[in-house]
Amino acid sequence: MTSASPKPMLPPPDAAAEAPPGEDAQASQSRQVQVHLRKIPLLAGLSDEELVPVRSELRFRQYTKRQVVLHKGGSGDGLLFLLSGQLQVIDVTEDGRAIGLRMLQPGDFFGEIALINNSTRSASVVATSDVLVAFLPTATAMHLFSHSPSVANQMLRHLARKIQTDSEFRALLSINNTAKRIYTYLVLMRQKKADGQDVVENLPTHQDIANMINTSRETVTRALLTLVQQGIVQKDTHRLIILNPEALQKLVQGST
Question: How far apart are the first and last CA of the chain?
Fold first, then answer.
């Protein structure tokens, strides 16, 4: 795992439609950022007036796959938002082994613990694809936390979910049976879609899953292949469709 300087700050490449005729580049970039801010759940409840200082302070950074976005032990100098791509939060053991803690998807924010506690980063964050990240300096972020009820409410909900998720993953890692750990991971990651289908969106690579649940990539590959062969799941390019949730749940409960 290597760290490199991020690419020069650029406006989001996929934010909005092209600028109308006669709109200059600066105005176009501002309008594109506005669209992106409305897609970030933490900021969605802010008024147009409240978004003005946020928009003016945001800085955009691009990273390529496997670049380190945050280093464990680094200073908590701001709040970060993932705008596109996928990130993995990892910890590194004393023997140098990387352990995946969780995946981050577009719209997620990170770096909040070090910012709130005025402490160093407790984990590293690595790009698992090319990503676009927005950085908000500490002073602006802390002002939002203390002056915006919608942001404070979203933050409290986020921290509660984070505690619950961390607890679930600690329980998962205590499971001795490797296959059961993989099945349990899929159950924890699944989402119920509007059509009633259970789906694991933005499925991490087999290696990333292996890092998160303390097993090998080959073991993950074999377990997922078995589920596909049994008709329990179906793999798409970037997601896993759970065709038979009841069968998957039985595997979680019945594996020894």
Answer: 35
